[in-house]
Write a structure and sequence with these properties.
With 342 residues, the protein is α+β, with helices and mostly antiparallel strands. Helices cover 32% and strands 25% of the residues.
Length: 342
């Protein structure tokens, strides 16, 4: 399985990265369980978990439009389903990432309990609410404690973006809330732009964002605040996965019946996975990174004919099709793959 990377190419080794996110599917007519969403639209609010290493959609949970973004029970259930899709011999080293919707006490406690299981390492990197206590801690932290952030794409220092850890300043509160002792609170800040309006809260002219992680700062698996911050910011890659999943079928649920739409979501999951593995193992050159719409036009919808002759089956591709060679190469690669063990 490919290695997940961050900070312009730093490898996460054998770690399987699961990125959980919600997405809205707009319904243009009255359908079963279609409701008003938190984005002021009407439709469904599904939860998905994508495997960052491969681009697979490990689990998809269709939900009514009024389902909460931070419902811990739903997040835990969809993560259970996703982990079950990973081969048993690869579940011992996981990283779960989420935006601030996953910052519930229940979810973090559940992830902490998974990490305490013998022989398993389950790390998390989850967005955290910047409340009055976090803001006060940020304002108390001296400027020389803030270090420059690193770029997601190059790993170089970014001007105007700084990061620090405030776990020590919040230790008493975290203990009172019975947060895991291994949880670190890391905050990123940038100065407000000239045209940007300040909030009602005292932030000393900065805009803050925070996340929590159980990855320590020291040891063989430890990360500095700079690298932990960069690893968290690449969670934004899940937005590309959401977009491609919608292009593969989640953008429009076809039926008025809920059970039919759930079956459609299962089909979408299979289609996303097949497309991901097609790109990884069978396609070369630019097609290996092509979007689903491009693959549909150039590969999946090729006007070919299946002909039976002399007890053989022949797939005849039109010679004038610009991508006929790419398709023929992909088919040959797939044919030469070893059959899965039974």
């Amino acid at each position: 399985m490919p290695e997940a990377t961050y900070a312009g190419g730093l490898s996460m080794g054998d770690t399987i990265v699961l990125r959980v996110d919600g997405t809205i599917t707009v319904a243009h007519s009255r359908k079963e369980h279609a409701e008003a969403t938190f984005k002021k639209t009407f439709g469904f609010h599904s939860l998905g978990v994508w495997i960052d290493n491969t681009g697979e959609l490990a689990a998809l949970m269709p939900r009514p439009g009024n389902a909460g973004a931070n419902t811990a029970a739903d997040l835990i259930e969809v993560l259970r389903q996703a982990i079950a899709q990973i081969p048993a011999n690869r579940r011992d080293d996981l990283l779960i990432t989420s935006d601030g919707a996953g910052a519930s006490h229940t979810l973090i406690d559940w992830l902490h309990s998974l990490d305490q299981t013998g022989g398993r390492r389950v790390a998390y990197s989850i967005g955290f609410d910047v409340d009055e206590h976090v803001r006060a801690a940020c304002n108390r932290r001296p400027d020389d404690w803030w270090v420059p952030c690193l770029s997601n794409t190059t790993g170089e220092v970014i001007d105007g973006l700084q990061v620090t850890e405030i776990t020590d300043l919040l230790r008493e509160r975290l203990t009172g809330l019975k947060r895991p002792k291994t949880m670190r609170v890391i905050v990123r800040r940038r100065k407000l732009f000239d045209h940007e309006q300040a909030t009602l809260f005292d932030t000393c002219g900065y805009r803050y964002s925070a996340f929590v992680t159980n990855t320590g700062a020291h040891g063989p698996d430890g990360l500095s605040v700079q690298r932990a911050d960069t690893r968290h910011r690449v969670h934004a890659r899940v937005e590309d996965d959401v977009r491609t999943t919608k292009d593969t079928g989640l953008g429009h649920l076809p039926s008025k019946q809920w059970q039919v739409n759930k079956a459609c979501c299962a089909a979408v999951t299979i289609a996303v996975d097949l497309t991901a593995w097609m790109r990884l193992y069978a396609l070369t050159s630019a097609l290996a990174k092509a979007e689903p719409k491009t693959l549909r036009y150039r590969i999946f919808q090729t006007p070919a004919r299946l002909v039976r002759a002399r007890r053989y089956r022949w797939l005849r591709l039109p010679r004038t099709w610009p991508w006929a060679t790419d398709l023929a190469t992909a088919i040959e690669i797939i044919r030469r793959m070893p059959m899965p063990a039974t």
